[in-house]
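Give me the fold.
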Amino acid sequence: MSGTYRNNKNYRSSGGDVIDFSHFEKANYSLSVKYKHNTYTYFKADLLGDDGWNIGYPALPMDVGYAAARIGSLSMHRENPSKSLYKWQVKIYANKINHTMDDTKRTNVPIHMDMPGWSKTYGAYSEAELKINQKQRLLLRADGSSTFLKASMTMYQPGELPMYMLTWPDNRKNQYGISASWLMQIDSTLKLQVTGRTDFITHNLVSQEAKDQVSIFGYPSAKRNDLLKNLSVLFSKKLSQKIKVSASIAYAERMPTASELYGFYLFNSNDGYDYIGNPKLNIEKSLQADLSAIYNWKNNRVQLSYFYSSLFDYIKGTINSSFSTMTIGANGVKEFINIPDASVSGMEGSLILKPSPAIDVVSTIRYTAGKDNKGNPLPFIAPLKNTTSVRYQPKNFSVQLEAEAASKQDCINTEAGEDITTGYSLLHIRFGYNTMIFNNIIELQGGVENIFDRKYHEHLDWGNIPRPGRNIYIQFRLHL
């Protein structure tokens, strides 16, 4: 069993400025029961609850008054190394999520609105791992799930009758999939993995109210059946005891989301537009290649990787001037459409050094770039970022110095509401101490984040809301 309760007030950015509506109150709790049937088999039950109250969103015009999730699963696990079918797992699961948006604590609200939403999902899967021979393995999986989504909005204009609409018209997605992955150790240095998956997916509006609402845009039937196909091939090769390289190529297909298919005047505060779904969207496809190299020596490692992805029938929101806005003050209306193609590429590097048994140095760097079919930058892409830490832990005590830096992001998409983000550099320090008292583990942790109280925000932060300034924390843990 485990549980956590948190009550966070509005945080302060650099200089002590209070960020209004950054507060939240949250409780999490979980229970896991495991029963060992015999040497090779056990059963497991998991329950998880998540409740949140007064969850503020500084970059949005509304907050969440209450949100709750209930998640449960039952599973059977079997593993017998002496058998050809040496791993097998079966699981059934279900979850229910609801949330209620709240604008009652905001000032200068033109029209008060209630915006509740619901999600219900249940499903099951079975996966197995087989030993074909000493060099070959086969991983098999079959799964299915069903998800129901609904969200609505009621507007209360003074002196008028309430106005009601569905922002997520009642819709259900059913998914049935099978996949297989074949692993072959060709020799002591070369490995091959081929993975394939196919999914049959149905989307449908499940109430007459939802069908009537979507039909006003000329979609008399929003039902659709789709078959998704995914295939990847991975090679990895040891060039020496110290060097390993790998390469892969993959083809993947992505279903449009419920918002992209059926969304009805979903306001996006980042670009200031209402968004409308399109049930006739094509499946988004991608073709991606990856290259990676790892160099190991003693307890040290350097890894470099690069990827390039071509996207076809890329889904994006485009201004449709024939529609009128629903949200007061909105810049206009965007409808989801497919554009012919887009591309995304990026690299990642990591360095792990251990100059002595008590010292660890870890550094990572990431960079991604993307553009659409007209050469315009794709939105929501983070700039070059590096994180480096040096940790000293002689015995029970540890101290870690951590540096975090991001470059300026001026490769932006203004149509998506982006603006230039300046670069930043931060320094953090963390401490830890653990010991045993009466056979119980006691941990004491603390630190100072953003030591120099820099004012900054990430490029992907909506509304350019400043992140916390200097933050001092301490926590105590007792493991019984």
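The chain has a mean pLDDT of 95.
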